[in-house]
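Model it.
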Amino acid sequence: MAKNIRKIMLIVALAMWSVPASALDIEFVPASSLKGPAGTVINTIGDLSKSAGINVIPKQMGSCGETLQYFNTTKNPVGITWSVNMYKNTAESKTDCLVNFAEAKAVAAAWTTYDVCVRKGFALESGKTYTIGNGKFNPTKSMTDHLNNNNKNIKFKNVSYEGSAQTIVGLINKDIDVGYIAAGNSAPAIKAGTIDCLYSTGSAKYGQKPLSEFTGNKDPLNEYKLGYMIFVRNLSAEQIATLEKSLSKEFHTSLEKQEFYFNRVGIDKKYLDTFVQTAKDYVKYE
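Modeled.
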């Protein structure tokens, strides 16, 4: 009997030893859509932090205002992918899409470019009007107006989708003619041979031309990039350090394979201030 008890106690001890002492559940909410680039970033964080005993739980909310309300007030350990679009979305939607910077800790950042894409073999003809799909969390009105100001006399009518992934589906299904798509989503479709991406806000990896060649102007939106700052709340200093350490080796390279660039872990005040100022600057593009 005593031998059996010792055996049970040994099994329990081994089981407890196999669970990291820092085991932690963190809800992660996107300020946009889990089905777009924000979801890619969150899934990458989840994959890289798993070995440190951190369980990332993606949680889709509704609007950016609802998402930020939850992030800023929940008592649970929580993270968010907050983008440079959020000051602009706050101004346009009249809802608060802003992080409470005093209570949140920035731990990482990632950036991706955007492509103007068509179905494989589809050609844009001068003087025509086309439908263009755009994620609802992007600066939709300003981007459509910007693209309408081009050197081919082409006009676009916007169709709003939940995110870039849905925009690609609409493009392939011929619900729209053109898609304004985050590179993290466009790249797999390019490789699969289902779409062609003609112009980009920063990438020439798949033969894209600079967007300025289409618009024919020097508007800063020709080089618009979607930036994400990853914030967390309700974590101890030790837990934050554990999360950052788990991301430090592979965060950059893992996301770079998925068309994200300028990725970093460890955010100082200067970088955060620059990121926030970039977000504020997008408000003027109406």
